[in-house]
Amino acid sequence: AYRRPPPDPSCLVKRPPVVTVMGHVDHGKTTLLDALRHTNVVASEFGGITQHIGAFSVKLSSGNQVTFLDTPGHAAFSSMRERGANVTDIVVLVVAADDGVMDQTKESIKYARQANVPIVVAINKIDRPGADVEMTKDALLANGIQLEDRGGDTIAVPISALKRIGLEALVESIVLQAELLEVSADPKGPVEGVVVECQADLNRGILSTLLIQRGTLKKGAWLVAGTAYGKIKGMLNDQRSSIETASPATPVEVFGWKDMPSVGDLVLEVESEKRAREVVEYRQKKLELEKMKDDLK
Ligand code: GDP
What we know:
The protein is built from six helices and 17 strands.
């Protein structure tokens, strides 16, 4: 209800695509996300102590950038969508070449379809003796995935997440898909975004990872998320370096919240603390009213 009307097309600027990794259990989603986190060509040697921050970006040598949501599976995908946060531009569907299309592969296809999000297929585990890429493609086709090399427009990239084969090609395919979609955002005006991760930090208090969808976040901004609010005291990028601004689709960790927001909450920038309090109080009252109504039932 608080969201601004869509921006004028002339205000839109290209941004990195936001990707969710889905697929059947054990087909390699977690391994792929781990491998991609290390593909980052500008990643400093933070490797050993990487903390889960909910999203990270991969920067390619071509200069292109892709943002990955760091929570595999459709639970995260649908919980965000339920709250009206359509953060995902592209689904990477991981299918193990030695196992083929399974139940959760089909479910993932269904979810992506319902959300109207295009799929890029990662045919994983090609290093395994039992891997059969052609058979996997046939199975995908049988499940309605129109693959590019079979006359359709869905890209499939053979990879090994474990041996780190084909990862650059996979990310470049995502970039290509994003260009076709013309993913863009309005970098001006009050910030709108989504909470993708939240945790308590000994030094900084409540830390939350946000995905900015609109506007550019700056230190000192007042944010509201659900019934939580706060003034942004500091921001970190996915390498945990301090940054001054965060633009659309780049993951950013912020601190300064007075209470803990929830994952999936929409984030809105308001002009003052007074306004932040008003919004939060209104929402709390509304929640109390709903609870009273439920109790009367
Ligand atoms: P998830 O359940 O989809 O997240 O799957 P995981 O990433 O946990 O992987 C399941 C198992 O498959 C693990 O033992 C991985 O080491 C293994 N695995 C994942 N990717 C590959 C791959 O490319 N090649 C091989 N040989 N094994 C893989």
